[in-house]
Amino acid sequence: MPYAELEHKAAGHSGTLADGALVFKPLSEQELAWYRAVGQPEDTANSDEEDSGDVPLWRWMPVFLGTLDEGISQGADSIAAAGQAGATLLTTGETPAELGQTPAVSPPGQPAPTTQRYLVLENLTAGFRSPNVLDVKLGSVLTDSAAPPEKQARLAEVSRSTTSGPLGFRVCGMRIAPNARALACPAEQREPQGDYLLLNKHYGRARTPADVAGAFETYFSHPRLAPARRAQLQERFFQRLQLFYNTLLDSEVRLISASLLFVFEGDPSRWDERGDDDPLLPEELDGGESDDEDEDEDEDSAAIHDAPLSRLALIDFAHSTVTPGQGYDENVLHGVESLMDVFEKMDMASLRDPQ
Questions:
Q1: Residue that is last in its domain, among 122, 157, 185
Q2: Other CB atoms closer than 10 Å to residue 207's CB: what's the count?
Q3: 3-state secondary structure of 157
Q4: Residues 163 and 209: beta-carbon distance below 8 Å
Q5: How confident is the model at residue 208 (pLDDT cuts 50, 70, 90)?
Q6: In terms of pTM, does the model score above 0.70?
C-alpha cells in the first residue's frame, strides 16, 4: 500500500506517515540517539530487569526498526514517488556509507535533490479495528535549555496557563468515536473526522485542575462499549500507570515534551473474539530484521492479529536524553502521579455510581 499521513493520531505535527504495521516519522538526530540508547535490546530473552519483575523503559516505547533515507526532488509532497526510485531501509547500526550509497547528483539545470530521513517505528494502532487514541503531554517543563529564548518563553506560558504547570500533564487531544460528552464541547474544540471526532489542542488547553478528570471520562465514554468494558479499560490503564511510575523511578533520563499515548479498541466484536482478555503489556515484537521476506510478512501478520484491546505507550523523544548518575526525572514523575490521582478518583466514582 502507498504511504499515507498517519490517520489515528490525537495531536502532533504533520508529516508522520504510515504503511500498515509501520510508522515513518521525520527524523531528528536527538530522537534517533534516544532510540539507539534506550530502544529494545537485540537479546530480550535474557533481560535481567524483566526477570526481577521490573518493566524496562523500552517496553513502553514503540519498537524501533531503523531509519529510512530517501532522495526527494524539491517540491515533492510524498515519499511514495521517491520510494519507487529505491528508498533504503537501514538497520539501527548501518549508515548510508556502509551500504555503498553516494549522494544523488542532479542533472544540469535541475534542482539539487534533498534527503528526507525517517525513523521507522512500530505502528501502535496496527491491528485495532476502531482505535480510540488520547495524547497526554508529560511534565511542566516543556522544552530544553537549547531552545531559542522566544520558544522557551512561549512554552513556559503554555505550562503556566494550562494543567501542565500545576499537574505536570496536559491533554493534547483525543480522536474518539463521537459520544454525548464530546459532542457537547464548544465547536472550536472539536473537529469531525469521518467516523471519529477529534478533540483538539484547544480542548486540552481549556482543561483546569478542577475539571481535567472529565476529559478522561469523555475518552472512555464509548457509545458501543458496555459499561463493564469501559470500567475494565479504566482499571487497566490505572494499573499501567502504576507500573510505568515504577519504571520511571529506575530510569535515569530526562523526558522533555514526551507524551503518553492511550489506545483502546472501540469495536465490540474484537472484545468478543478475545473474550475481553487484555494483558497489561503487549507481547514483545522483534526489533531485528530477517533476511526471509516471507517470514517477515508472517511475523507482521501475527503481530497485527495479536494486537491487544488497549495499550499505553511512551512516545515523542525529540528533546529527551539519557542522564546517567542524575537520578529519576521528577518533572515527569509529578505528571504521572497526578494522572494516577485522576484515575483513582474515576475508579472510586464508578464504584459509587456505576453506569
A1: 122
A2: 17
A3: helix
A4: yes
A5: very high
A6: yes
